[in-house]
From TrEMBL:
Residues 91-136, 201-247, 257-305 form the DC1 domain. This is DC1 domain-containing protein. It comes from Gossypium mustelinum. InterPro entries: C1-like_sf (IPR046349), DC1 (IPR004146), Vacuole_Formation_Reg (IPR053192). The keyword Repeat applies. Keywords: Repeat.
Length: 375
């Protein structure tokens, strides 16, 4: 149903319709049978039958003239390219200026995807608000290959904690939510921007996006418990699969004691005596993914490198329903140099932790220790 362009076939006397019938040349030449790597049978289309759950709204072309979320305030020309250097974004009160280079704050987060900020990005001169250029240019509406309704771009309130329907992680920032009443599907933008195929360092072959997979992930070895789960699967029938939780792990991570970015490693053939984490100083399972710097010989658990809640806003509060045994909210903090001990286990709260800032409490706790607190 795309607009006609290029070579087409045109039928002026067609029994299928009272109107003219047109086909792109490439559509007219599609085979009647295909082989798919995940189906043992040939898929045959009869040109008539439509699935019962088909919703024709999912095929309606979006009007791009009203689909943008930003207005250009100022633009500049660089050679043949024109770049918006100042914009007004629908989800922020002030104008945002584009930055091409410069040093980043260690705790700076993009308010769209919640990943560490990196150039190029837009920022507010009055607030600590950042958006990667890619996140600022997201469209108002999107389609998802495994959801039949249109999805609308939304900005979450930091007092709530949505759960992504694809990767099953808590998140803040931007997401796409179903525009249909009564449908709870929502997808954070890290997942919505994934392509149909993925080249990942953990596997030699291309990976293909699949829905409702029934096997465990090769990286974390977790089983799929959700009907809406999406994953990447090998196109070469070698049974390799990555759930979106692992497929969306960043390929690099920042570590305060290393001048280089750490790189995601998917296997470890080093000496067993080296299988420990330089941050928590606990042993590492050689079968688990980790982050490392080859030059400085630093290795970290993936959870130590990223934190338990990598896509929640630093400085936001978690309220009582996350803590059965504590009456006050906790603030998500990132401890860089001053790392207090955990109130429950006594070990230092390195990097990401939770802090109760009430004067009568004033303590920190690990995410995994939060339910062990006693009044």
């Amino acid at each position: 149903m795309k607009p006609l362009s290029g070579p087409i076939y045109h039928f002026s006397d067609c029994s299928l319709s009272d109107e003219f019938f047109n086909l792109h040349k490439q559509c007219a030449e599609l085979p009647l049978e295909i082989n798919h790597p995940y189906d043992r049978h040939k898929a045959v289309w009869d040109g008539k039958s439509i699935p019962e759950d088909y919703d024709e709204r999912s095929m309606v072309a979006l009007d791009e003239s009203i689909n943008w979320i930003t207005d250009v305030v100022e633009q500049m020309s660089f050679g043949e390219n024109t770049v918006a250097v100042e914009i007004k974004h629908a989800y922020h009160d002030h104008n945002l200026r584009l930055t091409f280079s410069g040093e980043m704050n260690d705790d700076g987060q993009c308010d769209g995807c919640m990943r560490p900020i990196s150039t190029p990005f837009y920022s507010c001169e009055q607030c600590k608000f950042f958006l990667h250029k890619e996140c600022a240019e997201l469209s108002r509406k999107k389609r998802h290959p495994f959801h039949k309704h249109a999805l609308m771009l939304k900005k979450s309130n930091t007092s709530v904690y949505p759960l992504c329907s694809s990767c099953r992680r808590l998140y803040h920032g931007f997401s796409y939510k179903c525009d249909d009443k009564g449908c709870a599907f929502e997808c954070d933008i890290r997942c919505i921007l994934l392509s149909d195929t993925l080249e990942h360092p953990s596997h030699e072959h291309s990976l293909f996006l699949v829905h409702n997979f029934s096997t465990s992930c090769n990286a974390c070895r977790r089983e799929n418990y959700y009907l809406s789960a999406i994953a990447y699967r090998c196109t070469k029938r070698c049974d390799f699969i990555l759930d979106l939780h692992c497929a969306t792990l960043p390929l690099t991570a920042w570590y305060k004691y290393d001048r280089h970015l750490l790189t995601l490693a998917c296997s470890d053939d080093s000496d067993p005596s080296q299988h420990y984490c330089d941050l928590c100083e606990h042993e590492r399972d050689p079968n688990d993914w980790f982050y490392y710097c080859a030059e400085c010989d630093n290795t970290l658990h993936s959870k130590c490198a990223l934190g338990d809640l990598p896509f929640l806003k630093i400085g936001s509060n978690l309220y009582e329903y996350f803590f059965h045994n504590h009456p006050h909210p906790f603030t998500i903090v990132k401890n860089i140099w001053d790392c207090p001990p955990c109130k429950f286990c006594g070990e230092v709260c390195n990097e990401q932790a939770l802090q109760c800032k009430k004067s009568e409490c004033n303590f920190s706790v690990h995410w995994d220790c939060r339910y062990q607190l006693r009044l």
